[in-house]
């Protein structure tokens, strides 16, 4: 069939199962958008027009996290492409599968500083898993097939395809290509050495104070059932990272919640006192470990990860197990039985005492809402919802008080991207139109991509946005209070803050302001029951701090802000 490069691109995307694309048009990518128009008319593709290209990247990211499929976004050359950079870096840090397609100036003017020319291939080289510049229309189908294969296999990540305008316009004899041949690509797991599996099983059988430390790799591999079986078989308590939330039922008695800088006290005490740490799809990052050489100081380590570069990078394991997390856990389960001796009874009793002594607390006040109170009420009324967050205090409170199922916690962890929550929620809602989607944001974060309210309005995406409004860049203020002698430099957001209710109305969206604690339950119920999108401005106590907190340079047992000052022995 004789057709254009742009048709080959859209047809190849459809052949990869793509049904939703997030993007914003421009001159260099117009040939592609002409084919988008035709594909939408045929019912083959649904394009979501964002209001800023960064929103497209975050929406594709949220779509991928909520579905496990590859998210796709489009942008034009120059500023359109560079506006994607933060979203690409966010996906790369959190290992999210995305295919990013950018228009480029015609190939014959590349290098001449043509209008809206930027070297997006070079700019994004450090923050993608792989990237392509298309040199001829004949290679488009192959490149698309390879890009999807690379994005979703091994350790997932974003892949960039940059298409010059003349390549998209050029006609050629089109032959679809679905075969992928990538000699040397290490995207497939190698069989595990039997000796390593046996060593890991021996450690599991002998440990008296084991702890499962679950990261985002467990979510990406869909390993929640295997984690639950291993935890129950050996009666091992489970802690998760910010990326690992949802991999294990946080209502289960073996759960100790999130660990790290703002993790639960009992999770941090457990990691400091364990004698065996089983790291599953986690990378020992600084927000989890605190002072690295004091992290799990008495523990032998089993490290399970698909990326060999992560194993031993920050902590040298006793037993490394490189492979897909779900498959590795299944091998451990196959090598053990339900009759395994349980040695952890006293360990679980110790953890239960920590839970009783240092619970997460929801402060209540007679005249003002607490941030924790608002989030806990959403958790109570909508426990099954998909939750996205922005970054800051509200993100940590959400991580503490929401108990999410697999893939229902959507948050920028590694890069910590403010402005992520709203566009990510759009992507989740497009993927799951019948499910509740709630975005927990802050008054500073929401303003970074607030233009995407226009996208919610255009497509009727019934996302509920809960703005935890304390008039500050909350986490910045908390650090300035504690570590900078209360010098609040450029962190007060009150001056110039919009009226969020009126702003929502300007987009044709229902808005509500909530400040009275006595009306919180009814207000949240009404927000959740509203048939369309809602912007809810929750005016909360201004100087509430997020605790517990591990100060910079401290070990995880040196938390501040514990609800009970009494320190217990870790022995």
Q: What would you note in describing this structure?
A:
Helix 1 packs across helix 2, helix 11 packs parallel to helix 14 and helix 16 crosses helix 22. By secondary structure, this protein is an alpha/beta fold. Helix 2 links the parallel strand 2 and strand 3. It contains 22 helices and 20 strands. It is 36% helix and 16% strand. The strands form 4 sheets. The protein has a 6-stranded parallel β-sheet, sandwiched between helices. The protein has 3 domains: 172 residues, Rossmann fold (3-Layer(aba) Sandwich), CATH 3.40.50.970; 164 residues, Rossmann fold (3-Layer(aba) Sandwich); 169 residues, Thiamin diphosphate (ThDP)-binding fold, Pyr/PP domains (Rossmann fold), CATH 3.40.50.970.
What distinguishing features does this structure have?
571 residues, alpha/beta, Rossmann fold, 3 domains, six-stranded parallel sheet, 22 helices, globular
Q: What's the topology here?
A:
Layout: E1 2-4, H1 5-15, E2 20-23, H2 30-42, E3 46-49, H3 53-67, E4 71-75, H4 79-82, H5 85-93, E5 98-104, H6 120-123, E6 130-133, H7 140-152, E7 158-164, H8 165-169, E8 171-173, H9 194-206, E9 210-214, H10 216-221, H11 224-234, E10 238-240, E11 255-258, H12 265-273, E12 276-280, H13 286-289, E13 300-305, E14 319-322, H14 325-334, H15 345-357, H16 371-381, E15 386-389, H17 393-401, E16 409-410, H18 421-431, E17 437-442, H19 453-459, E18 464-469, H20 474-483, H21 500-506, E19 510-514, H22 520-529, E20 534-539
Parallel strand pairs: 2-3, 2-4, 4-5, 5-7, 6-7, 9-10, 9-12, 10-11, 12-13, 13-14, 15-16, 15-17, 17-18, 18-20, 19-20
Antiparallel strand pairs: 1-8
Helix pairs in contact: 1-2, 1-7, 3-5, 3-18, 11-14, 12-15, 16-17, 16-22
């Amino acid at each position: 069939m004789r057709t254009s490069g742009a048709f080959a691109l859209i047809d190849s995307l459809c052949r990869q199962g793509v049904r939703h694309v997030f993007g914003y048009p421009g001159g260099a990518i117009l040939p592609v958008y002409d084919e988008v128009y035709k594909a939408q008319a045929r019912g083959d593709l649904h394009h979501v027009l964002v209001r800023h290209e960064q929103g497209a990247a975050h929406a594709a990211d949220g779509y991928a996290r909520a579905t496990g499929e590859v998210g796709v976004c489009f942008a034009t050359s120059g500023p359109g492409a560079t506006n994607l950079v933060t979203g690409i870096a966010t996906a790369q840090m959190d290992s999210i599968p995305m295919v990013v397609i950018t228009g480029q100036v015609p190939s014959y003017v590349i290098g001449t500083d043509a209008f809206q020319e930027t070297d997006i291939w070079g700019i994004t080289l450090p923050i993608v898993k792989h990237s392509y510049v298309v040199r001829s229309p004949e290679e488009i189908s192959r490149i698309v097939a390879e890009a999807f294969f690379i994005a979703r296999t091994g350790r997932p990540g974003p892949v960039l395809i940059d298409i010059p305008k003349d390549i998209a316009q050029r006609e050629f004899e089109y032959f679809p290509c679905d075969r992928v041949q990538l000699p040397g690509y290490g995207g497939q797991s190698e069989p595990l050495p039997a000796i390593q599996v046996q060593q890991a099983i021996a450690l599991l059988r002998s440990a008296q104070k084991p702890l499962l430390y679950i990261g985002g790799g467990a979510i990406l591999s869909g390993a929640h059932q295997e984690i639950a079986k291993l935890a129950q078989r050996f009666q091992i308590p489970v802690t998760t990272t910010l990326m690992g939330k949802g991999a294990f039922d946080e209502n289960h008695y073996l759960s100790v919640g999130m660990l790290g800088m703002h993790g639960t006290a009992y999770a941090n005490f457990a990691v400091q006192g364990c004698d065996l740490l089983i790291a599953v799809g986690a990378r020992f990052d600084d927000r989890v470990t605190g002072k690295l050489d004091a992290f799990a100081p008495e523990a032998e380590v089993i490290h399970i990860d698909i990326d060999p570069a992560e194993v031993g990078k920050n902590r040298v394991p006793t037993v490394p197990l490189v492979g897909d997390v779900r498959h590795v856990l299944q091998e451990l389960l196959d090598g053990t039985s339900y009759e395994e001796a349980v040695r952890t009874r006293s360990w679980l009793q110790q953890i239960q005492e920590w839970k009783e002594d240092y619970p997460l607390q929801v402060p209540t006040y007679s005249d003002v809402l607490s941030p924790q109170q608002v989030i806990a009420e959403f958790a109570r009324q909508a426990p099954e919802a998909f939750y996205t967050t922005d970054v800051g205090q509200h993100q940590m409170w959400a991580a503490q008080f929401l108990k999410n199922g697999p893939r229902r916690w959507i948050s920028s962890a590694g890069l910590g991207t403010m402005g992520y929550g709203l566009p990510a929620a759009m992507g989740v809602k497009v993927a799951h139109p019948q499910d509740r989607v709630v975005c927990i944001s802050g008054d500073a974060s929401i303003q970074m991509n607030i233009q995407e309210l226009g996208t919610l309005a255009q497509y009727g995406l019934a996302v509920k946005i809960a703005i935890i409004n304390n008039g500050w860049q909350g986490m910045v203020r908390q650090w300035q209070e504690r570590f900078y002698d209360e010098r609040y430099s450029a962190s007060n957001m009150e001056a110039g803050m919009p009226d969020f209710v009126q702003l929502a109305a300007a987009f044709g969206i229902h808005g509500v302001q909530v400040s009275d604690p006595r009306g919180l339950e009814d207000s949240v119920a009404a927000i959740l029951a509203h048939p369309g999108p809602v912007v809810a401005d929750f005016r909360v106590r201004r100087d509430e701090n997020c605790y517990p907190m591990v100060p910079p340079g401290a070990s995880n047992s040196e938390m501040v802000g514990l609800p009970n000052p009494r320190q217990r022995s870790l022995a």
